[in-house]
Design goal:
87 residues; alpha+beta; two-stranded antiparallel sheet; two-stranded parallel ribbon; globular
Length: 87
């Protein structure tokens, strides 16, 4: 999935991709840039290929970018259900 999104981003960076609940429209190029920035942060925090990145966040456009960033690094995206609690 991430490879397809990124290849489209490179061919058509201005092509609309998604609309946020606030009405902001992200183009494929926006996803490419945001996921690249997040991938940089992940690597700077020591995430390496094959590592698991556990994520417990609500649904949002930024979560899509994070998922793509994790794949860019070669790590594995592991989503947790938002209903999980400490107790």
């Amino acid at each position: 999935m991430a490879d397809l999104l990124l290849s489209t981003a490179r061919r058509n960076p201005d092509r609309p991709l998604l609309r946020t609940p606030a009405g902001e429209i992200w183009a494929h190029g926006d996803l490419d840039r945001r996921s690249a920035a997040l991938a940089h942060v992940l690597v700077s925090r020591g995430v390496q290929p094959s590592d698991r990145v556990v994520v417990q966040l609500g649904k949002s456009a930024d979560v899509v970018a994070l998922h793509v960033a994790v794949v860019r690094v070669g790590a594995v995206y592991v989503p947790l259900n938002m209903a999980y609690t400490d107790t």
